[in-house]
Predict the structure of Flagellar protein FliL.
Amino acid sequence: MAEETTEAVDEEGVTKKPGKLKLILIIVAGVILAALIGGGATMFLMSGSDTEPVAEEAKPAKPAQAIYTKIRTLEGSPYFTVVVPSADGRTHYMQLYVEAKSRDDEVATALTKHMPKIVSVLNQLFSQQSFDKLRTPEGKVMLQQAALAGIQGVMQEKIGKPGVEKILFTGFIMQ
């Protein structure tokens, strides 16, 4: 049996490989097909839907701008200074700069108006602390949470809502 060859012979007797022409045709067809698919996908994604638009869910409102109120002592000093004992019986001093974060002008005004009561609550809280507990990061966080609870209690009593979001110690010195 004789094998058939796929080579073509042109008029001059030179053999040509038919694969080059087929390869070019396949590449051109592939490019056209890719362009058609890309165009169809673009049309599908860009076109609007025929159905009525569904009511969008209400997006949560952007939170109001944070308002920071400095908690000042009765004399107007920007910090609290209290004596804190340690387990070894030595006396230490703690100095705190405190700010209250809220998002309501009413709360900021109430903080200023009721500052003597707030300062009194915080002075009592700060003077009951132990030096050894406050040396740890956990102790400082617990003090911050207790101060927040104390101020929120005053705000709840005075304006009917906690109002204060967070208490920040902008300065914390112990010696």
User: Anything to note?
Assistant: The longest strand covers residues 91-102. The first helix runs from residue 19 to 46. Residues 19 and 25 are 10 Å apart (CA to CA). The chain has two domains: 15-43, 67-174.
